[in-house]
Amino acid sequence: MKTILKFLPIILLGGFTALSVGCATKGGMVSDSQTPGMTKIFYEVEVNAPKAEVWKLLADFDNLSWARSVTSAHYLNEKREGIGMARHCDLESGGHIVERITRWREGNGFTYAIDDASDPISTESYVTWNISGDEHQSKVSFEANYKLKYGILGKAMNVVMVKRKFSNNIVEFMGELKSQLEKGA
Question: What is the pTM of this model?
Answer without folding.
Answer: 0.82
